[in-house]
Amino acid sequence: MLSVLMAAAQASAQIPAVENHNSGWLFLAAAALCIIPAVLAFLIFVFRVNRKLKAIVAAGQHSTLMQQNRSRVLAMIVEQAPLKQVLDALVEGAEQMDPSAYCTVLLLDEQGLLHVASAPHLPAEYNAAIDGIAAGYGVGSCGTAAYSGERVIVEDVRVHPYWQPYQALVDLAGICSCWSEPIKNRQGKVLGTFAIYHKEVTVPSEQDIQLISESAALAEIVIERINAIEALKRSEERHRLLADHATDVIWTMDLNGYFTYISPSAQKLTGFTVAELMQQQMLQLVTPESYAQVKLQMKKAAKALQDGETYPDYVGEVEQVCKDGRRVWSEVKISGMYDAEGQFVGILGVSRDLTERRKIEERMRYMAQHDTLTGLPNRTLFADRLQKALQYAIRHQKSLALMLLDLNKFKPVNDTHGHAVGDLLLQQVAERLLCVIRSSDTVARIGGDEFIILLPQIDELHHAAIVAEKIQHAIARPFDIHGLEIHISCSIGLACYPEDGETDLALTKLADQRMYQQKSAVEQTRLNPSDLQAE
Q1: Which of 94, 110, 112 is nearest to 102 (CA)?
Q2: Per-residue pLDDT tens digits for 437-490
Q3: pLDDT tens digits for 504-531?
Q4: What are the start-end ranges of the H helices in 247-402?
Q5: How far, in Å, are 132, 181, 188, 434 from residue 111 at the CA level?
Q6: Distance between CA atoms of 216 and 190, rounded to whole angstroms?
Q7: pTM, to two decimals
Q8: How many CB atoms are closer than 10 A to CB 8?
Q9: Beta pairing partners, 443
Q10: Rounded mean pLDDT of the chain?
C-alpha cells in the first residue's frame, strides 16, 4: 500500500502545475477507495474473532459451574444429606448459572400428584397453591411435562392455553415464562419436573436447554440414589425388628472369647458352617485391622466390668474374612448378657452384611470424582492428584507438566450430527488420550470439550512437548462414529513445574493462557480477512 502511494506521488509531481490541484483530489479519492474496504474488513474480522473467543470463554465458565454444582450435589449424597437439602443445593446451583432464573423441583407421587420439593425463590403462596396439583395435559408447564414425559417450553404464560386457568397465580408470582423438563429414571418413569421461570418473556437459548436438561438429569440421580438409601435404611430397620433375624448373624461369646452360639445365617454371609465357626476365635474371622478395633473395645469392656460397671454397648463396622478368601464388611452390635440375678454371663452380638450399602457409598464416591460420560477423573479428583504430585515434586526435586486441551471444530459436530454423536466422539477422544499417556499420568475431563492432563515425575521437560505432539497426532486421526467419519483437532496449553510456576494455580493459569493463544491462532488461520471478503 505504501509503495502504491509513493508511486502515485512521483507521478503527480511530473504533471504540470496547472493540473496539480485536480490530481491531488483524484489521488486522495483513489487512496480512500483502497484503504476503507481493507479497514472495514479488518474490523469485521476482529469483531468476529472476539465474539467467538467470548463465546468459548462463556461456555467454559458455564461448564465449570455445572461441574462444580454436580460435584457438590454428589458429595452431599455421599454424606447422606436430606433430600430437600440436596435439591435446594441443586436448584441454587442452577440459579447461579442463570441469575435471572427462578428454578423449582416438583416430585410426582404414585397418585399422579405433584409436590413442591424445592422452590426457594418463588412466593410461598404460589408454592402452596401448586403443591398437590394433579399432573395432566394443559396443567401449566410442569403438569403437562410430568403427564407427557416431554419437555414443555412456554415463552409467555400470560397467553399460552396451558396457563389460562392459572392467571391469578401468574400475577401472584409475577412470572412470564416457564420451561419444564420431566425428571425420568433409566426405565423412563417420570419422577417429577425441573422448571425454570423468568419474569420476562424469554426464549430459551441452546445454553438454557443444556442447563435445564443437565439439571433434570442430576435431579434424577439425587432422587433415585437418596430414595435407594432411604429404602435401604427402612429395610435395615425392618430387619432389626424381625424376631428371627433371618438375614442377620446372631452370636454369643463367653468371657474367654469363645463362641457359644452362632445362628445358621452365618454360613450365607461367610461360607463357613456353624460347626467350623464354633472352632474359631474372633482373631481368625476378621482382618488384623478390624481385630485391633474389636480387641480395644473388649479391653475397655473388661475394665468396665472390673470397676463394677455394666458392659458397654458397642456398634462398629468390621471386615470379615470368608471361607473362599473374600472379605465382607459387617455392622457389628455388641452388648452384655446378664442372668436373672443381674450377673454378667457373656457377650451378645449381631452382625449385619453391609455389602450393598458399601457398594452404594462407593458408587457415590466414584460419581462425585469422575465424569459420568467418559469415566475420566473430574476437576475435583484431578485437583487432589495435582496437589499430591506437586508435593512429591517439591520434596524430591522432580519436574512435572500440566496440559490443558480443548477440541477444535467440536461444536459443528454437535450442531450437525446431534449431541448423541458428540457424546460418542468425546468418549473416543478420552480413549485415545488414555492410550497416549502413561499409567502414572492422569487425564481428566473438566467440562464440555475441555480436558486436562498431568504428567508427574518427568525426567526431561521436552518429554512433555513430545507427549503433547503425540496427543495432537492422535486427535487428528479420523474418528469413526457408527460409520460416520469425523475430523477434529485440538489446542494444547503446556506448563511445567518448576520452570513456569510453583503452584497449581500458577501452572493452570499459564496452561490456560497458552491453550487459548494456540486456539486463537487456529481461529485466525481459519478466519482471515481474505476469507471474510470472499464471504
Answers
A1: 94
A2: 999 999 999 988 999 999 998 878 889 999 999 999 999 999 999 899 999 999
A3: 999 999 999 999 999 888 777 766 654 4
A4: 266-270, 274-278, 282-285, 288-306, 355-369, 379-396
A5: 10, 20, 17, 48
A6: 11
A7: 0.47
A8: 16
A9: 453
A10: 84
Our answer to whether residue 415 is catalytic in this structure is: no
Indicate the Cα dihedral angle 194, 200, 201, 205, nearest 10°: -60
Q: From the candidates 208, 371, 406, 449, give the one annotated as an active-site residue.
A: 449
Distance (Å, whole) CA 79 – CA 412: 40
Q: Could you tell me the pLDDT band of residue 62, with boundaries at 50, 70 and 90?
A: low
Residues in a beta bridge with 114 = 108, 133
Cell of 306: 472390673
d(CA 240, CA 352): 10
User: What pLDDT, on the 0 to 100 scale, is given for residue 207?
Assistant: 86
Residue 307, CA distances (Å) to 162, 294, 315 in order: 75, 20, 22
Nearest in space to 277 (alpha carbons), one of 245, 254, 251: 251
Residues 270-290 pLDDT 10s:
889 888 988 888 888 888 998
Hey, which residues does 397 pair with through a beta bridge? none
Residue 6 sits at φ, ψ, to 5 deg, of -65, -40
CA angle 107, 111, 114 (to 5 degrees): 30
pLDDT value at residue 43: 60
Do the Cβ atoms of 56 and 408 come closer than 8 Å?
A: no
Percent of the chain clearing pLDDT 90 (strictly above): 41
Please provide the distance, in angstroms rounded to a whole number, between the alpha carbons at the two ends of the chain.
23
CA distance 443 to 453: 4
